[in-house]
Amino acid sequence: MALRKKTTPVAVVMGSKGDREVMNNCIEQLRGFGIEPTVRIISAHRTPKAAAKFARTAADEGIKVIIAAAGMAAHLAGALAAQTTLPVIGVPLISGEPFEGIDALLSTIQMPPGVPVACVAVGKAGAKNAAILAIQILALTDKNLGEKLAQFKQARAKKVIEKDSALQ
Q: pTM of this prediction?
């Protein structure tokens, strides 16, 4: 009998190893909700066949949401979205001067009709929000995850109230 490999509902795909530092924010946020994501380094430009294959087979592997992070031209999210019907969340990354991530942001959000990519903020905040957005999508059909998400949001609200009270 063949062993079935463990599946996870979220894949975090980065364009290069250098993206890992920022995307650890996403990975840790997912782990905080009990999701151990599939993590891959795949380039839309340097390994286009691997990117296409990954996207085409992701659903068969049990993945339900793909988070794709890239800087500069930032075509990874769009390249993956073109090959799958799964939701793809794009995280634009800062690749340095002169654009400080604006180039990646525009590349991620400017998708043609019929190939949507959900886009979050540039950098670390975007990486965390990509995880939360993926969790919100999964929570539509996972009551337990929905309860964890509600608790997470309540805890965040409580922290703001406590900070406000400390000022009074």
A: 0.93
Class of domain 10-143: alpha beta
**36, two tokens:** 């151990």
- In 3D space, the residue among 137, 54, 59 whose CA is nearest the CA of residue 68 turns out to be 54
At residue 115's C-alpha, the angle toward residues 140 and 27, to 5°, is: 50
CB neighbours of residue 113 within 10 Å? 5
pLDDT digits (tens, 9 = 90+) for 26-43: 999 999 999 999 999 999
Q: In what order do the strands lie in the sheet with 38-41?
A: 38-41, 10-14, 65-71, 88-93, 118-119
Residue 91: both structure tokens together: 């995280």
* pLDDT exceeds cutoff 50 at 4: no
